[in-house]
Design goal:
The protein has 191 residues and is of the alpha+beta class. The protein has one domain: minor pseudopilin epsh fold, CATH 3.55.40. It has one helix and eight strands. Strands 3-2-1-5 form a four-stranded antiparallel β-sheet, covered by helices on one side. It has a four-stranded antiparallel β-sheet with strand order 4-6-7-8, covered by helices on one side. Strand 7 and strand 8 form a beta hairpin. The protein is elongated, with a radius of gyration of 30 Å. The chain starts with 21 loop residues before the first helix and ends in a 6-residue tail after the last strand.
């Protein structure tokens, strides 16, 4: 005899299947693949623009650091294009990175015994860095926080960061007082 509490389920004629069919899953995956393929170039462009801006801001930060260290230490602090051996590059290849150092003998070159405040890594190959001739190899701040050359004259200069794939570049400009700023510019061409 059957118990009062047990019920038998009747077979269902119209039971709905749960989940997706293989065809539905393939269609969704194909649409997702198309959307990702459309988004990747735009994301790569955004990444390249941010990388360019980050390099320019990194240089600006180094200039602000050099100026504040000159004021704090009350002596000349310089930035110079870094050579591959970690010294200053007299030819001014800023693309290889730069040094911020206490320039105790006021010659614009990092000599042994002078304190290195910061070493910046080379600029990525996709980013080009050009400078004006007035700051080819070094840039210095005196004890008062003003930019000055090794002979005591004021210095001003521009460091331009650009990419061949971008129509917008960034430049770090230092005026005659040595106050640096960053701004966008339109490069005529970028090698």
């Amino acid at each position: 005899m059957r118990s009062f509490f047990t019920r038998r389920q009747a077979p269902c004629d119209r039971c709905s299947a749960r989940g997706f069919t293989l065809l539905e899953a393939l269609v969704v995956m194909a649409l997702l693949g198309i959307l990702v393929a459309l988004a990747v170039p735009a994301l790569l462009d955004v990444r390249a623009r941010h990388q360019l801006q980050a390099q320019a801001e990194g240089f600006l930060d180094s200039m602000v650091l050099a100026r504040s260290e000159a004021l704090r230490r009350q002596q000349r602090v310089s930035l110079c294009a870094r050579a591959t051996d970690g010294t200053c590059d007299a030819n001014g290849h800023w693309q290889q990175g730069w040094l911020v150092f206490v320039d105790a003998n006021d010659n614009g070159l990092h000599d042994s015994g002078e304190v290195v405040v910061e070493v910046h890594a080379p600029v990525p190959p996709v980013v080009q860095l050009g400078v004006t001739n007035t700051v080819k190899a070094y840039f210095s701040y005196g004890a008062e926080g003003r930019s000055m050359s090794t002979n005591g004259a004021f210095m001003a200069g521009t460091w331009r960061f650009c990419q061949a794939s971008s129509s917008v570049g960034w430049q770090v400009v230092s005026n005659a007082l040595g106050k640096p700023r960053i701004q966008k510019y339109t490069p005529p061409s970028c090698p």
